[in-house]
Write a structure and sequence with these properties.
single chain, 266 residues, alpha/beta, 2-enoyl-CoA Hydratase, Chain A, domain 1, 2 domains, 7-stranded mixed sheet, 4-stranded mixed sheet, 11 strands
Amino acid sequence: MSTATTPVTEQVTVEYSEDGHTATILIDRSAKLNALTLGLLEDLAAAAREVSASAARLVIVRTAGDKVFCVGADINHFADLSAAGMWRNWIATGHRAFDALAGLRQPSIAVIDGLAFGGGLELALACDFRVIAAEARVALPETGLGTVPGWGGTERATELAGRARAKELVLTRRQLSGEEALAWGLATAVAPKDALEQTVAKLSADLLAGAPLAVQLGKQLIDAAADGAPSRVLEALAGGLAAATDDLAEGVAAFREKRTPHFTDN
């Protein structure tokens, strides 16, 4: 159940659950298969900034419609750009939006219920977790159009699937089913479409069950480690911060009393 909806624009909204713990970013350009424009990307970045400043503990990214998650960039919005315009505006704006999403302190889940092509897959890859319908398809088909992925797809696909798989995905334009995306490491979980929401709910519950600050610190530690930061330094700092919270005391007490902890994000 939700209690608040913040319209970033008519195409991007942020909705909060009744307890405020979950923020849902919804992209709604279903009449155009949720194809991404410069304006929509800027609004997505604004939504990410809003959520980051909120008390939400979890972020879920969804798109409107039931057959297409997102077909990627709106070709009509970039086909006539100059080389300089492509560099300064189109590529840069997409990176800012997806980096804002990837950089959220809260864990994020992309719910892929249909086709996720090009920038649509890059949008999903910018989230921490991807729950995908078995019937969905994902691909990075840009080389068939005469261009390349431009919003972090080459980097994030390589990180998740490895160099050889990323090359196959980009160079052959192969479309992956939900099961294949899971096997390649591009998806976190796969489920039949009629069980997708149940799978999302289970993952959400698991993420929300942890101490909020500890979960967010854990995410940032892992991201920093992936960028080469030394864990011996950052884990000491993060552990010291966690030690000052009421939630650690509650977690220890619950363990000793053999009960479920009640974390308050303090």
